[in-house]
Write a structure and sequence with these properties.
The chain is mainly α. Helices cover 80% and strands 0% of the residues. The chain has a domain at 10-57. The longest helix is centred in the last third of the chain and has 35 residues, at 31-65. InterPro entries: HLH_DNA-bd_sf, Spo0E-like, Spo0E-like_sf.
């Protein structure tokens, strides 16, 4: 899945969350609000993990090839 697609999903869910909170008069504990919030959290965590993995990959490759610190 492309990062742009994930960014779009995050933005769509973020907007849906705002609308849902508004429809339940600011009740952040309503089950529908919590469900959408959890979906959004999951997407954000997945993006952060992917970014972390990508940031670590070049360093790991350097260590494995014996060029660490060069």
């Amino acid at each position: 899945m492309a990062m742009n697609s994930i960014s779009g999903q995050i933005e769509t869910l973020r907007q849906k969350l705002l609308e849902t909170v508004d429809s339940y008069r600011g009740d952040f504990l309503h089950p529908n609000v919590l469900r959408i919030s959890q979906e959004l959290d999951t997407l954000i965590v997945n993006v952060q993990r992917r970014k972390q993995h990508q940031a670590q990959s070049p360093a790991a490759a350097s260590r494995e090839s014996g060029h660490a610190g060069l």
